[in-house]
């Protein structure tokens, strides 16, 4: 739906139905979906598509990312993964751009006996959850991916865990937003505006005031830093640093890998994500260092060392980029989606390691809420109010 097709609300100039604070994948998809529902929408971010989006690897891996105690998050992740093919097709049509989505599958492998035991336990958990994962011997793993190290002792083949390219996805979402009539305000929001007991918009870095009927805070790891948000609704989101490498596979070496390959090396996860354009993404460290985004020699060394043990030939490839970003972590590793206790303020943050995967579902959830609908069942466990003690007691 183009701007000329959108119904207008008749509000005064400088006011919007919805203001989205933050222009990563989550903010962009929220703004796009809101505009497609006919809401006059603005998005505030000095560089939309930047931040953690530019560092994410783009794995869509609800099955191989399964962790004990995260069954509710698994249901949310699976629901979003099911939406990805249709979401990609709709977005590519709306933007006229390719997003790099690949239904190539994932192979998780073990390099020693301890890793093999861990993967066996994970496989049992996956089966108990009704997931589709196939156990392979080391020889079968190497038959699928000949570049794997000879010592691989076994692995899990998960054909349903796919990938996309977050940078291309962000560009497509930004274009789709612009075509849908979203007003892109290239300023940082520094404070929440309130009137009485309701959120009414935001104060921007240049001093301008943006008023809106509803405000969505989708600023990733910076969501907790917005001034003016009452303490009882401030999202408990922290930055979790991740360093990542990008290598290039020269033409004669392609295909270097046919699918995403991941492992746990000495207790530390590592993954390799091959793009169709010859890029190979290697990630990612997990560091609790506040808002530090320095690329360190130690981080690069760790990633190359572990990736080399997994795929020895990687050291022959050109290293073209090193980068670091900040995942928005929450106390239970789940996102905060939907209305807060402050009328007019909604959250779409705290996605931690699943931001790319949860992009389609997050857009739908927020669009439903912003147009007066109810939160879908799979998203109910991730209400922002679960971290508000007074509201927890009321619902008990």
- The tally of helices reads 8
Mean pLDDT: 93
Biggest β-sheet strands, sense, barrel? 8 strands, mixed
Provide the low-confidence segments as ranges. 1-13
Which structural class is indicated by helix and strand composition? alpha/beta
Concise structural overview:
27% of the residues lie in helices and 26% in strands. The chain has helices at 25-36, 71-95, 113-128, 138-144, 166-179, 297-310, 359-370, 389-395, and strands at residues 15-21, 41-44, 59-60, 106-110, 134-137, 154-158, 162-163, 183-185, 189-195, 198-204, 209-217, 238-248, 260-265, 268-274, 279-283, 319-329, 336-339, 345-349. The strands form three sheets. Strands 1, 2, 8, 9, 10, 11, 17 and 18 form an eight-stranded mixed sheet that branches. An eight-stranded mixed sheet has the order 5-6-4-13-14-15-12-16, with helices on both faces. A two-stranded antiparallel ribbon has the order 3-7.
Task: Characterize the structure shown.
The longest helix is centred in the first third of the chain and has 25 residues, at 71-95. The termini are far apart. This protein has eight helices and 18 strands. It has 396 residues and is α/β, with parallel strands linked by helices.
Characteristic key phrases:
alpha/beta; eight-stranded mixed β-sheet; 8 helices; 18 strands
Topology (SSEs and partners):
Blueprint: E1 15-21, H1 25-36, E2 41-44, E3 59-60, H2 71-95, E4 106-110, H3 113-128, E5 134-137, H4 138-144, E6 154-158, E7 162-163, H5 166-179, E8 183-185, E9 189-195, E10 198-204, E11 209-217, E12 238-248, E13 260-265, E14 268-274, E15 279-283, H6 297-310, E16 319-329, E17 336-339, E18 345-349, H7 359-370, H8 389-395
Parallel strand pairs: 1-2, 1-11, 2-8, 4-13, 11-18
Antiparallel strand pairs: 3-7, 4-6, 5-6, 9-10, 10-11, 12-15, 12-16, 13-14, 14-15, 17-18
Helix pairs in contact: 1-5, 1-7, 2-5, 2-7
